[in-house]
Amino acid sequence: MILENVHDELIRYFLSRVSLDEYEIHLIKKAYEPKFVKKKAFIFNQGEICKTEAFVIDGTAKVFYSDERGNEHILYFAFKDWWIGDIASFNFGEQANMSAQALEDLLVLTINPERKEELFIKVPKLERIFRIITQRTLTVLQKRFFLTMSGSAKDRYLQLIERYPKIEQLVPQYQIASYLGILPESLSRMKKQLYAQHF
Amino acid sequence: MILENVHDELIRYFLSRVSLDEYEIHLIKKAYEPKFVKKKAFIFNQGEICKTEAFVIDGTAKVFYSDERGNEHILYFAFKDWWIGDIASFNFGEQANMSAQALEDLLVLTINPERKEELFIKVPKLERIFRIITQRTLTVLQKRFFLTMSGSAKDRYLQLIERYPKIEQLVPQYQIASYLGILPESLSRMKKQLYAQHF
DNA sequence: CGCGACGTTGATTTGCCTCAACGATTGTGG
DNA sequence: CCACAATCGTTGAGGCAAATCAACGTCGCG
After folding, report:
1. Which domains does chain A have, with CATH numbers?
2. pTM over 0.90
3. What pLDDT does residue B196 have?
């Protein structure tokens, strides 16, 4: 395998959505800084202002909200080619409603709000890309919300492992429970009950 | 009060977010068609392709998902200055995951995907506006999702009537229950219990 | 007036939580 | 290299919020 520049994956990602000339590619590469995040380290923290938007090159992270009682609720897991950020905080300067933490060693490309704004001015067609990305993200969350409202924890679990069959190898069970919105004990019991049906 | 053009409210809405010249305003006015929707009529239907994105001039609507058992789950109520649409269906041509229905006589400005695409080409700065609108919508849904995960139905109810004190006059109780993700019976009991505490 | 839409109340059930205890596995410092 | 702690998953007993099913009251409207 050819030794690649860390930015290549991001450029590929953009090129699959819009055409870019050499100069625009140059500007994008200059704007995004590679950053290595050790396992369990945080990319940004709930309560602070999120100054980082990150594109995952390799590794896994979770984005989650901690409620008043200290319980974590995982909004999503981020893998290769996913974005990590608190949109409200990054774009509008509000306090972050969530944190992001590496579940294993993580390589990301990061940008801060000022650099992203400059990049939008220099490469306006990125406005369109990010509009479309945000729309996609919104529709995914809408579907997740509807599933949460209409289905049981079992429905959510079955749908999760159908969409991400390898998820149970990638993240521990108590994190999956947190994503599903239930306790680890409940997930354990649910799986036991599911297996018991296969006779 | 001066008799206004139906488009003025939309132009005001855009102007509060970006500057537009006379010609751009003209193009926008031409792209959005006024439409009157009678109480209980639908703007678009779950399962079909949503060809309409609507901006509410006056009236109230609900946007909701119907699950397999026929239960409705209200994603949001739309009032003056809100957008109504199924983003996934309108933008990506998928089957709509939700329906929109007028709760009372409704006046909207509508656009279809083709016209919106043309408008984006002629007025590229709208890309930016709609990116920001979508981001705002996403952050609102994220907060709602976190509240649903971490809080009880009572938490959700109290937050709803705090944010929209007039909501109980505008929509019937069983619709509020649907928004909260509970049954009308449960909401009735919950309110009874809340009032009982005021002694 | 009579019917349908809406809200309330009661009895019962259920899915998930809470708290507690206990294995299994992993990793780490002496 | 072993001992011990920490992490993670499992199991049990009991509790609670909301669902379910059913019945009934009230209001507005054709």
Report:
1. 8-125 (2.60.120.10)
2. yes
3. 75
Residue A141 and residue B140 in contact, taking contact as beta carbons nearer than 8 Å: no
State the SS3 of B29-59.
HHHCEEEEECCCCEEECCCCECCCEEEEEEC
The answer to whether residues A131 and B127 touch, using CB atoms and an 8 Å cutoff, is yes
Tokens at B80, concatenated: 């003056």
Residue B3 confidence (pLDDT) above 50: no
Are the beta carbons of B88 and A139 separated by less than 8 Å?
yes
Bases of strand D lying below 7 A from some protein CB: 8-13, 17-22
Q: What is the pLDDT of residues B117-154, one digit of tens each?
A: 999 999 999 999 999 999 999 999 999 999 999 999 99
Q: Is the CB of B188 under 7 A from strand C?
A: yes
pLDDT of residue A54: 98
Contact B81, B56 (CB under 8 A): yes
C-alpha to C-alpha distance for A104 and A67, rounded to whole angstroms: 24
Residue A36, both tokens = 């290595």
Dihedral sign of CA atoms A95, A68, A79, A45 in order: positive
The pLDDT tens digits for A111-156 are: 999 999 999 999 999 999 999 999 999 999 999 999 999 999 999 9
- Residue B60: pLDDT over 80: yes
How near does any CA of chain B get to the CA of A59, in Å? 24
